[in-house]
Design goal:
Elements: H1 2-6, H2 10-17, H3 22-36, H4 43-50, H5 54-65, H6 69-87, H7 92-98, H8 104-115, H9 142-160
């Protein structure tokens, strides 16, 4: 243990093991955004939930996720809309509205930017329906990989734990 705390990754290990660290605060922000992604919110509101200042939230959120909180919200919205379109045979306009988009044209533009094709071409009933995959994301940092494992584990455990 002593060598770990004195090695190259010592600072990251100390941050992970600290009782109230930035990773935990960002995790709170991510969880809150996941629960509320279809509703409009302010960065100030997310910062309060994470118990951080807005500037600290922006800085640390970006270090962990490689995107801003609003970019993260947009990605969640688009992924959920795609799931609704492909998995539930929902039309694009309904899916867009359900995940929080007020403007169908903005939704279509952002959908095309992320997936490389407009939502109409990814609909289940579409004739010319080539496979559409999301564009590759930037490579993850070690910090982000550890964080993603933590979030995935917590999300998996949340479904098991009894509520009450």
């Amino acid at each position: 243990m002593f060598r770990l705390l004195r090695g190259d990754q010592a600072e990251m290990i100390r941050q992970i093991l600290a009782p109230e660290n930035r990773l935990q605060q960002v995790n709170r922000a991510i969880s809150w955004i996941r629960q509320n992604f279809s509703s409009p919110f302010s960065i100030e509101q997310v910062a309060v939930e994470a118990r951080m200042s807005t500037s600290s939230l922006h800085q640390h959120f970006r270090e962990v996720t490689a995107m801003s909180p609003l970019q993260y919200q947009k990605q969640l919205r688009l992924q959920e809309a795609r799931r609704l379109i492909l998995g539930n045979a929902m039309d694009a306009a309904t899916a867009a509205h359900q995940v929080g988009y007020d403007s169908p044209s903005q939704f279509s533009r952002e959908y095309r930017r992320l997936f490389g094709a407009p939502p109409i071409r990814t609909s289940p009933g579409s004739e010319a329906n080539p496979p559409v995959t999301p564009r590759p994301e930037p490579p993850n940092s070690l910090f982000q990989k550890i964080f993603n494992r933590s979030v995935d584990n917590k999300m998996a455990c949340a479904h098991i734990q009894p509520h009450g």
